[in-house]
Request: fold
Amino acid sequence: QVQLVESGGGVVQPGRSLRLSCAGSGFTFSSHGMHWVRQAPGKGLEWVAVISYDEINKYYADSVKGRFTISRDNSKNTLYLQMNSLRAEDTAVYYCAKDRHLLSAVDYWGQGTLVTVSS
Amino acid sequence: DIQMTQSPSSVSASVGDRVTITCRASQGISSWLAWYQQKPGKPPKLLIYAASSLQSGVPSRFSGSGSGTDFTLTISSLQPEDFATYYCQQASSFPFTFGPGTKLNIK
Reply:
């Protein structure tokens, strides 16, 4: 069965950096686009970024463009999110998610990792 | 960016009721719309993709319709496990965007 396991969350000061990882299994990781979606405490879902299966295409939410970088290592079945210049408003649970087909809907989600940006 | 709105923001209903949730896009998105269900403390679950296609394993009481700018999610006969928050998401153009959510409460 599909499993997505995020790691790397924690408490970080404003302006600092953090890198999230997501290990995928139970599917052909190298054949699917992958997304990051976040959810601030008590709030709705916010799409963050997507990367195509071959890393050629990457797209970002306006709120993170220029600060966050999505990448993947298909040899390790792992997705990454490098987050720089973190702000308090980046505090959220970050979900790694598998694209269903052609960079559209998300059909599987990880359990999420909490990032707290606070001094 | 495409803005997504949902109505109502919350609704109270009883087991067995039929419930409809509406999602509207700020511009046409063809059928590039998905619906998700989220329960507290859990990740979302895909219910519907391409506006009206039922995701594998999702009960047939869930259905989606619409195209262009106006979409609906219908639950034909509410079950106790359906009380949750529902989100729509457009996948027509980047950045993808979610609606603000509709909380379905037990009456």
